[in-house]
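assembly run, all chains below
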Amino acid sequence: MREVAVIGVGMTKFGELWDRSLRSLGIEAGAAAVNDAGIEGKDIDALYVGTMSPGRFVRQEHMAPIISEYSGLVDRHIPATRIESACASGGIALREGFMAVASGLHDIVVVGGAEKMTDVPGSVATDTLGMAADQEWEAAFGITFPGLYAMMARRHMHEYGTTKEQMAMVAVKNHKNATLNPKAHFPREITMEQALNSTMVADPLGLFDCSPVSDGAAAVVLAPLERAREFTDRPVVIAGSGQASDTIALHSRRDITTTDATVAAARMAYEMAGIEPKDVDFAEVHDCFTINEIIATEDLGFFKKGEGGKAVEEGRTQRDGEIPVNVSGGLKAKGHPVGATGIAQTVEAVLQLRGDAGKRQLKDVEIGLTHNIGGSGASCAVHIFKRGW
Amino acid sequence: MREVAVIGVGMTKFGELWDRSLRSLGIEAGAAAVNDAGIEGKDIDALYVGTMSPGRFVRQEHMAPIISEYSGLVDRHIPATRIESACASGGIALREGFMAVASGLHDIVVVGGAEKMTDVPGSVATDTLGMAADQEWEAAFGITFPGLYAMMARRHMHEYGTTKEQMAMVAVKNHKNATLNPKAHFPREITMEQALNSTMVADPLGLFDCSPVSDGAAAVVLAPLERAREFTDRPVVIAGSGQASDTIALHSRRDITTTDATVAAARMAYEMAGIEPKDVDFAEVHDCFTINEIIATEDLGFFKKGEGGKAVEEGRTQRDGEIPVNVSGGLKAKGHPVGATGIAQTVEAVLQLRGDAGKRQLKDVEIGLTHNIGGSGASCAVHIFKRGW
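ok done. output:
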């Protein structure tokens, strides 16, 4: 397999973008990534698009050729492929693009992720997201994602003494981080009091434990490392790629305080990159609910099982902590247009490694990790990035 | 890139399968392919699932981990990825599986395709299929796929003198072929009179010019050719893989009597396989409407542009003709559970090359081709198969 590098990144602002369509978001992100890479449309050999449910959100399937056409790429009739794995659609699309380049089948590949979630009433958005759970054994009985993650939180609290305060600290940290990110949906601080006293959604998760329903898109341009220097002097290498699956229904898991798909995908990525968790300098993890950032930091091996809550409390995941987590603001405050999330995490990793992260730039970072989950953990993609120069 | 072989195939019966769920169909096809390959679940490294719109048809996204779980593969947490490209979802999933093996990332990969279309009223099925067209510029104004293909047919008739009789001959041929296929949705002959006098759907296309709404699933097992002999003495090699895209809306094409995505995907596949159209011994093509078989046989290079209708009339695409087309019955009579179609075509190609096609076995065939289209031609996958022994 060839080594694969990211040579360009781009993303739209995340938020409630009433005046934008799904395709226009995809094009904006793609064009930004292409410009960042300094390539032209004619250089692109293939396109991957991660998006969860455009059929339900905007009544449109078959999104990949649409993005290709509306990006002006139609003349070369390039392969354009949509990947769906619920909220992990972006991360898994990245892996497919990585594979296309690594295999030698394609050279320059654009991977985008996009979702337009606010054109439907809130109940339809929640209902659609519920299709990432088991329709026959979970969703049909009325449960939605806040309820599933609430059960994971409750069990984590029971097993390990994790507290509501610790979960609130995840939200406070990520909102503070988002103030440094001009693309964030909610770039404003919240207090512990606000977090702890917010409207109850599914006990113990309050409103500020939940990521928002957002619109947005992100894109990256991939190339074989051996050709990357034609385009940039700061290629970022995809050093590790892992993907794993688990039972779709939460009740079938051996343990609901851990996501085994994260453990398996991380193992695969660490092995490919030849590194250990302690080598990671920063991570963008899937904090769809605050409890999931705590679980992720354990499952990724940054902290021992059960100590993720304490680690937040001790500030170890802060910007200036030993392993900064979600310096972009995370899904919680940057926003969570589901198909875009895995790619937006990649954008952040690349910007940080290149030193292009503006006000939120971390110092001396050499290895970054992204962690993207679908559903309550039935699918997961983990990627590891390092400097290619 | 490594050479890739198909080492096992399986499919369900196609039809109106009222007592079956989408997941049960996927599992049945997958188990049949795994048994045919003589492997066990623990041998499988990754899973790809092509399905167009389970979110609309059965209220379930995130299908790939479901198929993995319900197939009993959950313990190894293998990567499980859904591909969607409307009715080309299966063919493009095959290409992604091919890439996964060719790259060296995975060894044994199962690729399945499935759709459950009959659990919704007919109007919902038509509406959902319409999401493969441009929602903003086509579907929103009321057109559905019979109307789009009717315009393609009308223009083909105008440009090349293609007749309604020639289109009816496609239907009569494919229904006759389906009588030899125990898996077919409609394994019965129709007469020219029936075909020509059937209920008008969208002038000039009558009911018998249209493929049916079907349920069904199909699956194949892939392995690197260098390992294929561990499992079978008759591995079938994927000699060529092509994929291409085009404008999503029919009105934006340079010419609506041809599908440029077919031309581009075929060129890519022929080049990879190092063959020409005349080397192909038989083909399974995307006859979603009879006109599209005629267009496909031209665009794939079997006949000159405009001569596809005449070729049918002359019997050149019959079982005993120079290039048998859709000996399985095609989408028209075998059925068209959209996500399954590209994989079912692959199953037919493999059975024919192995000599396992039962009553419908062709004599002395060495190279087979499959052609799978999404929408009115916005995406296309073409694959070429040959014996690996």
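The domain at 4-121+214-228 of chain B is CATH 3.40.47.10 (Peroxisomal Thiolase; Chain A, domain 1).

Chain B has a mean pLDDT of 97.

not gonna interpret more than that til we talk
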